[in-house]
Write a structure and sequence with these properties.
There is one protein chain. By secondary structure, this protein is of the alpha/beta class. It folds into two domains: about 160 residues, VC0802-like, CATH 3.30.2130.30; about 200 residues, HUPs (Rossmann fold). Helix content is about 40%, strand content about 20%. The protein has 13 helices and 14 strands. Strands 1, 2, 3, 4, 5, 6, 7, 8 and 9 form a nine-stranded mixed β-sheet that branches. Strands 12-11-10-13-14 form a five-stranded parallel β-sheet, with helices on both faces. Helix 9 links the parallel strand 13 and strand 14. Helix 7 crosses helix 8 and helix 8 crosses helix 9. The chain is elongated, with a radius of gyration of 27 Å. The model has no long low-confidence stretch (mean pLDDT about 95). The site of adenosine-5'-triphosphate (ATP) has 20 residues, from helix 5 and strand 11.
C-alpha cells in the first residue's frame, strides 16, 4: 500500500493557528482527492499522511494535491516499521530494481523520542545499501536520494519530493468576493488571494442582452479552473446594461468608467455582506488603464465600506500573464468577448477624478433605486 507524506509550510504554524491550519489543510486534501482512493488523511508527527488504497488513481491524486495551498512539498512513499533493522531491509527491497551508482540517505524524525539520531539512521541504512548494491555514498551530488521519515509508530521512505504550492490552506483567512471580468488579470488576483488562505466567490457584470453572452461563458470556464484550487464556490452573474444606460443618460461621458466601477463595487459589497465575506478583490494593477490611477482607485474604492484588495497592484502585465499561463486561465481570458465596460466607452475618460467631483455627478441619478433593482438577489 502506498502513502503520501505531506509537509506543510512551517511559517504559519505559530501558536494557536496551528490546529486550525492543519485541520483545514487535512479537510482540503480529503475534499480534493475525494473518490480517488485516499482512505485516510491523518496528522502525524508534523506531517499529513494520506493512506492510499491499492488501486488509487495516483496520477490524479498527484495533480489534485499539487493544487492544494499550504503544502511545502509532498511525496509518494512506502511504509515500514521504524525499527531500523526492519527498515533497512524494506529500503533495500525498494531500491533493488533501480539503477544508480551513488546515493545518499536523508533521514528526518517527526518523533523526537526515537532512540537514534537521524544521522545514526543515515549511517546504518546507508551502510546496508552500499554493501548490497555496491553503489557509493555521495553527499553532494548523489544520483539517488533516499528520504526517510521516522514517526512514532512507523517510518516512511521515498525518492522523489514534489514541490507544493506553498501559501495557506484555503479557508483559514475567511471569505472574499472577487470581481471577475473575463480578462487576464482578475482570475490571477483571485488565485493570489486563495493562496493566502481566502475562499473566493465571484461576481461578474455583463451587458447581456445589449452584448453577447460570451463573457458569461468565459467566466463560467474561468471559475471552473479556479475552483480546482478551492472548494466549488458561487458565481453571481449580474446584468449591468441598464445601470450603464442610466449612467450614460445622466452623467458626463468622461466619468462613465469610474461611475460603472463604483456601481460594481456597491453591488459586490452588498453580495459580500449577504455572503459574510470580509473584503472585495479586483485585478487592478497601478497605471495599467485610466481607471487604475491612484486618483481613480481612491474614488472607486470610496464606494465601498469593505476593504478592496488588489493583489496585482505592483505587478507588470507580463508578470500577470505568466501567472495566468501557469494557472491555465490565460487561454480562456484571451478569447475575444464584449466586456460590459466597452459599452458606451468615452474617447477621453477622466484619468484623475476626486471623490467630491464624482459625488456631485452621482447626484444626477438615483443610486439607491438602481441598487435596489439589483439587490433583490436570491
Ligand atoms: P482584467 O484583465 O481583470 O479584465 P483589466 O486590466 O482589463 O483587468 P479593467 O477592465 O479596467 O482592467 O478592470 C479592472 C478590474 O475591475 C478587473 O480586474 C475586475 O476585478 C474588475 N472588473 C472590470 N470589469 C468587470 C466585470 N465586467 N465584471 C466584474 N468585474 C469587473
Ligand atoms: Mg478587463
Amino acid at each position: 500500500m502506498r502513502h503520501i507524506v505531506i509537509h506543510y509550510q512551517e511559517i504559519a504554524l505559530k501558536g494557536k493557528n496551528r490546529p486550525l491550519f492543519v485541520n483545514k489543510l487535512r479537510d482540503n486534501l480529503k475534499y480534493a482527492t475525494e473518490g480517488l482512493g485516499v482512505k485516510h488523511a491523518r496528522d502525524q508527527g508534523g506531517r499529513i499522511i494520506l493512506d492510499l488504497v491499492p488501486d488509487a488513481r495516483e496520477e490524479l491524486v498527484r495533480e489534485r494535491v499539487s493544487k492544494v495551498f499550504g503544502i511545502a512539498n509532498f511525496a509518494f512513499a512506502c511504509k515500514a516499521s521504524n525499527d531500523v533493522e526492519v527498515l533497512k531491509e524494506a529500503v533495500l527491497r525498494h531500491v533493488r530494481d533501480k539503477v544508480f551508482k551513488s546515493f545518499r540517505i536523508s533521514t528526518k524524525r517527526g518523533y523526537k523520542e526515537y532512540p537514534m539520531t537521524s544521522m545514526d539512521v543515515d549511517r546504518i541504512v546507508g551502510a546496508h545499501i552500499k554493501e548490497a548494491t555496491g553503489a557509493k555514498v555521495d553527499l553532494t551530488h548523489p544520483e539517488l536520494t533516499l528520504f526517510i521519515e521516522i514517526l512514532s509508530k512507523e517510518a516512511f521512505f521515498y525518492t522523489e519530493k514534489i514541490p507544493g504550492q506553498g501559501g495557506l490552506p484555503v479557508g483559514t483567512s475567511g471569505k472574499v468576493v472577487c470581481l471577475l471580468s473575463g480578462g487576464i488579470d482578475s482570475p490571477v488576483a483571485a488565485l493570489r488571494m486563495m493562496k493566502r488562505g481566502c475562499s473566493v466567490l465571484f461576481v461578474h457584470f455583463h451587458a447581456y442582452p445589449y452584448q453577447s453572452k460570451m463573457s458569461q461563458e468565459k467566466v463560467g470556464d474561468l471559475v471552473e479552473i479556479l475552483n480546482q484550487y478551492q472548494r466549488a464556490s458561487k458565481l453571481y452573474l449580474i446584468p449591468f446594461g441598464d445601470i450603464q444606460k442610466e449612467i450614460v443618460l445622466n452623467a458626463p461621458a468622461k466619468y462613465r468608467v469610474v461611475l460603472y466601477r463604483r456601481m460594481m463595487i456597491r453591488i459586490a459589497e452588498a453580495i459580500a455582506r449577504k455572503e459574510k465575506a470580509l473584503a472585495l478583490i479586483t485585478g487592478d494593477s497601478l497605471g495599467q488603464v485610466s481607471s487604475q490611477t491612484l486618483e481613480n482607485i481612491t474614488t472607486i474604492e470610496n464606494a465601498s465600506t469593505l476593504p478592496v484588495l488588489r493583489p496585482l497592484i505592483g505587478m507588470d502585465k507580463s508578470e500577470i500573464m505568466d501567472q495566468a499561463r501557469g494557472i491555465g486561465t490565460y487561454e480562456i481570458s484571451i478569447i475575444p468577448d464584449q466586456d460590459c465596460c466597452q459599452l458606451f466607452i468615452p474617447k477621453n475618460p477622466a484619468v484623475k477624478t476626486s471623490i467630491e467631483e464624482i459625488e456631485k455627478v452621482e447626484k444626477g441619478f438615483d443610486i439607491e433605486k438602481l441598487l435596489n433593482q439589483y439587490l433583490l438577489l436570491k
